[in-house]
Fold this sequence. Notes:
The complex is a heterodimer of chains A (115) and B (113). Chain A has strands spanning 5-7, 10-13, 19-24, 31-37, 44-50, 53-57, 65-68, 75-79, 88-95, 105-106, 110-114. With 115 residues, chain A is mainly β. In chain A, the strands form 2 sheets. In chain A, strands 2, 4, 5, 6, 9, 10 and 11 form a 7-stranded mixed β-sheet that branches. The termini of chain A are far apart. Chain B contains no helices and 12 strands. In chain B, strands 2, 5, 6, 10, 11 and 12 form a 6-stranded mixed β-sheet that branches. Chain B has a 4-stranded antiparallel β-sheet with strand order 3-9-8-7, with no helix packed on it. The relative contact order of chain B is 0.33. Chain B has strands spanning 3-5, 10-14, 19-21, 24-26, 32-38, 44-50, 56-58, 64-68, 73-78, 87-94, 101-103, 107-112. The interface between A and B is medium-sized, with 29 and 27 residues.
Amino acid sequence: DTGVSQDPRHKITKRGQNVTFRCDPISEHNRLYWYRQTLGQGPEFLTYFQNEAQLEKSRLLSDRFSAERPKGSFSTLEIQRTEQGDSAMYLCASSQWTGGAEGYTFGSGTRLTVV
Amino acid sequence: AQSVTQLDSQVPVFEEAPVELRCNYSSSVSVYLFWYVQYPNQGLQLLLKYLSGSTLVKGINGFEAEFNKSQTSFHLRKPSVHISDTAEYFCAVSVNTGNQFYFGTGTSLTVIP
């Protein structure tokens, strides 16, 4: 297993365009998380899935953001009508949740720059 | 609600010197505590975690942390740092459901040769 993979690593887009990021978690992990990290800050929770079900969304996740995890495998995060404030590193993480708390395995992130 | 405070945004230290990175948290419920390291342009890597049991936790790369419930702290320590320890370090807390982590703002550790 190669860990959590995110694609693309970098994305530059014009304001108003739509972008989509992909995350491939560790195959046996049932939970998948999306976080956003802006410069000089720690990661902030956006949403998470258990298998294919999206169980929680942060209020940071405006209606321009949508995430899916079809078939409980990879996940996509789409941002519509991007704004400059969306520029950040988008981190995906996965874990095998068994009822307690385990550390995540993070991917390397997708850095989004909105110009 | 949970929150994490990392008191030092930048910590310079000479190679082979000891280092302590401070982390305090606030929570009205029991928490699990974690330290992550982030190298430039990379994701976060788990250094160590406290779930229960012994309050002194040992992690990778020679790091350790001590959970102090009365002071609501989880400071990270290393007795002798190496150049390769230069990175951003994040403290995080999670409540028992493991739904999400709350991260501090990070401490940038710079090891000086």
